[in-house]
């Protein structure tokens, strides 16, 4: 019975995520059209859209990864419904509060809401507490969900087993599946990032309710913001990777991947590196000690090596000169890995201190993080969505138009990202609602970016219609 | 074992208390007040024939405004002397200095005498002036001298205020400051960004660093501990959950 409910709630998650994704893409296109001077929004509308777009995107692809991992976790442990349900309810309330604060209250402090911007009220006075409440509600829901999943894993595996420490030596007696290892590593990182958000929000509320008789330290707030923001944005990618490790070989008709010593070591190291990589967001902050800046650069480099290196190696080994059964699912995984690598390289270039001083405030930054999301993480989750919908389909209708969908997705995604990179190379600043005459190519690039994003949107609409139709059927089916 | 924990706890408590105490200072925010605000456009009397408003003076070149009074027996003279010497060391001088008296008893003659004493009367970069709108000007730059009837003196800060060509206050320096700080002030009126970090005050307990103006060094503050809290608590939570679920595994 619990399995059926989890299947239904997963289907609901998928429909909600895809619906919100479509809306968020439209907001993104509107922003690029505004920068291209094709439409004319006020800066308030632009930055309101930017706030909503950024936070909604981070939120939905995080919960998409969580829903996927939660669903597949049933293969290894007994999964309870309540943490998942709590996550869903809290996310729904949080998103409503967020959208009300931005669309009605005009809150527009940006998706990173860097301190002290939320207190420089240029919107309805209630919008700031509502915005902070929205983050609190979502954060609490996700924390409960994550802790619930950790608890379920630890009911079956001991700490050493769940982290695959027995694989460090030869001939381990107990096998830890890669999916379990990566899920645990990721969930621990997620919990740490959400606790950073808890500390951050407590400090925000303390200042808010003290009528500024208590004020915060800007450096502390920025560190906490990126501890939360950077870490959760990376962990959601790892959730996608956990799904990839579980499904890629399976849908390709290949033997299941096993945990080896280097997979165990690399993922354990990832946890350490990912929790310290966020310091690279503070290179511009002159009061941050030089030691932490160096830690930021080293951790950024090292974080990419174990997880990315091992995963890319595993995927290449799996497909190179091997007869595998290609389907939309494993093609999405495969292209997603490529997108992740490209975006990751862009991130590494930006995480190098000397480069960061040139690139940090340019379009290079949105270029790289859009790459590993638009063409990386989103594809991992789409692969899961497609696989999930196919599992319960009576026929092969979902494989129809696969080439068209993939073609549009790659064309739209690559074009959209290419103009971002060109903008970065041209030193076009990011976060501008309108570009001054000093950047003559900026408007054209923004316009071209909007066109390619529309192509991407069309591809997503294909996926949305196809997958949602199946998921709605699953939600309302009475049988298992 | 228990004694060890108590000892560690006490040490941590003492460390935290010392930190919090060190972070609470009286005047931490003064230099930030009124920065990026427009300076009051006071009409200044420069000599018997000449007068100009602050914005008129700023339009040609950005200004550094220094506030003094001629009967000062305290900081004014050493402040002006050091200010003059520090400025001599700076090569680029695309700005003017306006020394304004905040004592209504001061006349143009008193200010001219002051300029002469400091050998600045003929220096075109320096202007000595008085104004009838001193209260509005003082308030617009966040300068609040207090009259001490007993000593017949003002209790006041040594203050230098940078004003750019648009009349915006870009930076303030309070106290006797070195040439490095002065260079930052000059950069700010030229439109260059000069980084600053808010000094801890009574209301700000969790700074990542505490700046010691005597040594010029930053010491780690309580705020840094907050960055470590999420990772530590996560580790503890995993350990606790592991203990709670022990029976299920068995």
Write out the CATH superfamily name of chain A: Cytochrome c oxidase-like, subunit I domain
Binned strand content of chain A: under 5%
Give the neighbour order of strands across the main sheet of chain B.
2-1-5-4-3-8-9
Total separate domains of chain A = 1
Strand and helix layout:
The complex is a heterodimer of chains A (480) and B (250).
Chain A: H1 2-35, H2 43-73, H3 82-104, H4 127-156, H5 159-162, H6 178-209, H7 218-251, H8 261-274, H9 290-319, H10 328-351, H11 353-359, H12 364-391, H13 402-425, H14 440-476
Helix pairs in contact in A: 1-2, 1-14, 2-3, 2-7, 2-12, 3-4, 4-6, 6-7, 6-8, 7-9, 7-12, 8-9, 9-10, 10-12, 12-13, 12-14, 13-14
Chain B: H1 2-23, E1 43-45, E2 51-53, H2 54-60, E3 63-68, H3 76-88, E4 96-101, H4 108-117, E5 126-131, H5 134-141, E6 146-148, E7 153-155, E8 159-163, E9 169-174, H6 179-189, E10 209-212, E11 217-220, H7 222-244, H8 246-249
Parallel strand pairs in B: 3-4, 4-5
Antiparallel strand pairs in B: 1-2, 1-5, 3-8, 6-7, 8-9, 10-11
Model description:
The complex is a heterodimer of chains A (480) and B (250). Chain A contains 14 helices and no strands. Chain A has 480 residues and is mainly α. Chain A has one domain (2-476): Cytochrome c oxidase-like, subunit I domain (Cytochrome C Oxidase, Chain A, Up-down Bundle). In chain A, α3 (82-104) packs antiparallel against α4. Chain A starts with a helix and ends with a helix. The relative contact order of chain A is 0.11. Chain B folds into 2 domains: 2-23 and 203-249, no CATH class; 30-189, Glutaredoxin, CATH 3.40.30. A 7-stranded mixed sheet of chain B has the order 2-1-5-4-3-8-9. Chain B has a two-stranded antiparallel sheet with strand order 6-7. In chain B, strands 10-11 form a two-stranded antiparallel ribbon. The longest helix of chain B has 23 residues, at 222-244. Chain B is elongated. In chain B, 32% of the residues are buried. At the A-B interface, α4, α6 and α7 of A face α7 of B.
